[in-house]
Please model this.
Amino acid sequence: MAIRCPTCNRSSDEIKFIGEFCEECIANRIKDTVPDKAKIYVCRFCNRIKSGGTFRKLDKDTLAVALKKDLGANGFRVDVIHYHNGAASLEFECDYENAKVHFTKLVDIKTVIENCIDCTRMKSGYYEALVQLRGDGYLVERMAIKLTKYVEANGAFISKTEKEGTGIDMYISNKKLVSAFFMLYRLKPKRSYTLYGMKHGKELYRNIYALRL
Ligand SMILES: [Zn+2]
Ligand SMILES: [Zn+2]
Model:
């Protein structure tokens, strides 16, 4: 026997019901509990978005993670359908009385400009490793390009580069990455260390790698 939705009077012959209400009225009711405004945090220098506790490249996936958190939409699956000029069209899905409820909602987005940790470090000349490339000018140049590509492809950065005759000094933000690079290419630079500070009672060292080419 057909039943009628107490809210919109539609019949269960026309539309799926969840309990005593039609699925559209249920979806609308849940939709009203989701805020229609959200904030995102974007770095002024690299334009990455704060998403899942760190700054990442802005795309539909990272935006969805950021918006879900800011909207407090914990029980939902959130997908970005479209994003343009301070508004996003979002698809929500949640479980309700053993059924899946879907709806789309347009959310206004306010962008808050921040400085991400990587850009802040880069601006202040932060580095953990100094790589001193020496020897043949052509080989030094090639190695510097290779190392730069590797460092940047892995999310770190070169703080500063200085020419020393035919040699190059490179100040790099991540020393683990520099070690990994030398391992990868089976290079054996001379290593030394300088103490540059303390953090939580631990001594912090900068690694210096001198490589002859
Ligand atoms: Zn209804
Ligand atoms: Zn940044």
Notes: The pocket of zinc ion (ligand 2) is lined by residues 43, 45-46, 48, 55, 116, 118-119 (CB under 6 Å). The radius of gyration is 27 Å. The chain has a mean pLDDT of 94.
